[in-house]
Every structure is written in C-alpha cells, then in structure tokens.
Structure to design on (369 residues):
C-alpha cells in the first residue's frame, strides 16, 4: 500500500475512534485490549447477546462481569473495544417539548398523606370513554405539551364497547364541580373548572404487544385543540437531556385516580412513593407468583412501595415521575403505568412500567407541530 493511502486509512480510523470515544473514559478489557467505558446499549456485540431472548450462559455471565465498568449516573456500562462501539444516540431535538415551563408543582408537600393536593400534579390527564352511550372515566395520562398527552397503548387500543372519547385536564377531585383550597381564615384559592378536550388522533407504538405481551406499551394522544396553560394545567417534563435519561433513579412518585384501601376508585387524585426494583429481581418475583411476563431491561422497569403498594386499576397509562433539579425543582416522567391491576398490592409483585427514556426519539418523531 502506498504511504499516502496508508496515512489516509490511519486518519479515518483515528477519526472514527475519536467520534466514538471523545466523551468516554478509557479502560482495559478482560483480554487486555484498550477500550472505552460506554453504556451497554452502545457496545453492539455485547448488547445483542444480552437482549437476545436466549438464556445467558455461565461463560457469558462471567464475561459480562469481567468487562463491567463504572460511570457516574449511568446504570449499565461495559468496557468495549472501539470497533464494537456505536456512536452516541443522536441528540433529541425537543422542538415540540417544553424544557422550562414543565414539571413545576404548585404545592410544597409537608405531609405524608397519599391524597395529592390541589395544584400539586397539574399535568395529570384523565381519559374518558364512551360505553353504552355513557361517558365513563378510565385510564390516566400526562400532558407533555399544549397538544399531546402521553399514555399507555392499552389505554388507547381498547375493546370495541369502550371507545376513547375525551381527555380531561385540570381535574383534582372528581366529586366536586370546583376544587378549592380553604385556609384557616376561610380564604379560598380555587382552580379553574376542569376541561374536557376532544381527541383529534392517536398513535400506538407499531410493535405494541407484538410479539411479546406488554412490550412497547406506549401511545400518544393528539388533542383537537391547543391547551392553554394555567395555574391548574401545565405539562410534565420528559427526560430530554442525555444526563437526565441516564440518571439512576431510586424513588418515584406515582399519581392517579386508582383503587383505594376500600377497593373503590378514588375521586381525589392520589399519589404514592415507589422504589425502583431491578428487572432481574422483578422477573423472579413474577415467576414465583405464577405470572408469565417477559420483561425487557431496555424498554421496561419495575417499582413497588411499602406493604405491597402498587399501581391499580384507574392508574393505567399514568405517569411515574421523579423530582429533578433542572433549572429549579422539576418533575420528570420516567415511566408509564403498564400493568396496573396485575397485582394491585395483593401479591408480592412489583408494578411494570414502560421506560419513557427509551422512547424519546419515538415520541418526538410522532409529534406534529
């Protein structure tokens, strides 16, 4: 090979390595090769083996343990040789998603009650369905901008006798026509009446439930009109930034009009704190309780509360969020309630949630201006 051509080839190789590794710390693999510590999803050879439905062999498990490395705020990282590293995921262009006016709670919580307070979770959406010519309440969802609601696919793809009809926003206590905070001096702070918004269209993930049950349980609802933000209606934040998507979250807040201790649906918006459960542990608990659900670390995660607290009927499609410091305290949605009611706190089984961070590109690509 001519010297000039050799230098060009070397330049290309060096450039490729710099693209793959410019923000990744160096490491040494178990075979003594130079590599870079990257999220496991970017090490395509390793990741293809891990996400395969075939059981991991003992040899592969030992190999994975050997190449494990550590990076702050990144959950799963491995030492990967440059030739097997995919470039970082393309930056999400959040032109349709709010980055500052979102996830702001209008209430500073000082108590431990499971009943949420007025103005506390102002992004909550209540999906309403027509059944036998009657409008009934069903799933939850979250407002993510002035035109879109994020929810679960199973809340949109419903039986023929249950048709998604409207989305209610600004609701808190369904038993009242007007929600108010009443203070000690009898002063009142009232929210605007909730609004029912018609639906223009819906988009369900094309691979929902196919071929694996509960997989890709995510959908978008496009409202028939722009929603005006108010003291009682604002969107939740989504994990747009890469550091927020890769954040290791240990505790979440689940909100919805779900089942109470009396096994009836709550009129008042409720909230509960849940702890993250590793997928491997979650899968084992499913098996121990006779539930055959094939979980994916990439697309799903699990969470549960104390004393078997879990998501229940009426909370399907609702958000699982965590408070983050993003130009001030903001609630960021990390999960969508996917299997509400599978255990509903009656079995020692965590709830299953769609991992929102894995669908950010899908969300943005399917949103119209």
């Amino acid at each position: 090979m001519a010297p000039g051509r050799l230098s060009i080839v070397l330049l290309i190789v060096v450039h490729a390595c710099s693209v793959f590794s410019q923000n990744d710390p160096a490491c040494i693999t178990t075979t003594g090769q130079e590599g870079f510590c990257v999220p496991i999803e970017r090490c395509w050879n390793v990741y293809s083996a891990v996400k395969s439905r075939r059981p991991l062999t003992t040899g592969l498990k030992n190999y994975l343990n050997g190449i494990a490395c550590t990076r702050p705020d990144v959950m799963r990282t491995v030492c990967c040789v440059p030739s097997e590293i995919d470039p970082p995921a393309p930056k999400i262009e959040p032109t349709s998603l709010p980055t500052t006016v979102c996830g702001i709670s209008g209430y500073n919580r000082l108590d431990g009650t499971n009943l949420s307070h007025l103005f506390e979770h102002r992004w909550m959406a209540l999906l309403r369905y027509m059944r036998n010519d009657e409008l009934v309440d069903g799933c939850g969802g979250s407002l993510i901008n002035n035109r879109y609601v994020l929810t679960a696919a199973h809340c949109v793809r419903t039986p023929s006798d249950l048709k998604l009809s409207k989305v209610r926003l600004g609701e808190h206590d369904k038993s009242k026509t007007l929600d108010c905070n009443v203070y000690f001096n009898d002063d009142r702070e009232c929210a605007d009446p909730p609004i029912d918004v018609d639906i223009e269209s819906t988009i369900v993930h094309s691979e929902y439930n196919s071929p694996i049950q509960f997989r890709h349980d995510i959908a978008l609802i496009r409202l028939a009109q722009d929603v005006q933000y108010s003291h009682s209606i604002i969107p939740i934040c989504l994990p747009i930034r890469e550091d927020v998507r890769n954040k290791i979250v240990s505790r979440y807040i689940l909100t919805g009009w779900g089942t109470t201790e009396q096994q009836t649906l709550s009129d008042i918006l409720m909230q509960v704190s849940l702890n993250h459960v590793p997928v491997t542990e979650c899968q084992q608990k499913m098996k121990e309780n006779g539930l055959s659900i094939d979980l994916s670390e990439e697309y799903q995660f699990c969470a549960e509360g104390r004393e078997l607290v879990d998501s229940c009927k009426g909370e399907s499609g609702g958000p699982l969020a965590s408070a983050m410091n993003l130009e001030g305290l903001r609630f960021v949605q990390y999960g969508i309630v996917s299997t509400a009611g599978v255990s509903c706190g009656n079995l020692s089984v965590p709830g299953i949630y769609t991992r929102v961070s894995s669908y950010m590109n899908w969300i943005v690509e399917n949103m119209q201006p």
In short: The helical segments are 3-21, 44-50, 58-67, 153-156, 242-245, 279-288, 360-365.
